[in-house]
Design a protein that fits this description.
Layout lengths: L2 H17 L2 H5 L7 E2 L8 E2 L1 H8 L29
Antiparallel strand pairs: 1-2
Length: 83
């Protein structure tokens, strides 16, 4: 994966978080994903479980709650390598 591909994925990640569209969320992850909201969390495993968690439907301790429209904004950018 190059920097442009990573940036595209990051942009899709933010768009999926804002839209709460299950298909957009699912498209971000492989079937066997192990996802953590925080580094010390137990992973949420499997694409369907991650989608459910993002939508606030998961039963894991780290399940998300939906952000109210207009209360969440994010922008992530890939960094440049220092020489």
């Amino acid at each position: 994966m190059d920097r442009a591909q990573a940036q595209t994925w990051l942009d899709r990640y933010v768009a999926a978080w804002l839209s709460y569209d299950a298909k957009d969320i699912a498209a971000l992850f492989s079937e066997d994903v192990a996802y953590r909201y925080h580094p010390s969390d137990e992973p949420i495993t499997g694409r369907e479980a991650v989608v459910a968690s993002w939508l606030g439907e998961g039963n894991s301790n780290g399940a998300s709650t939906r952000d109210a429209p207009g209360t969440y904004a994010a922008q992530y950018a890939t960094g440049r390598r220092r020489r």
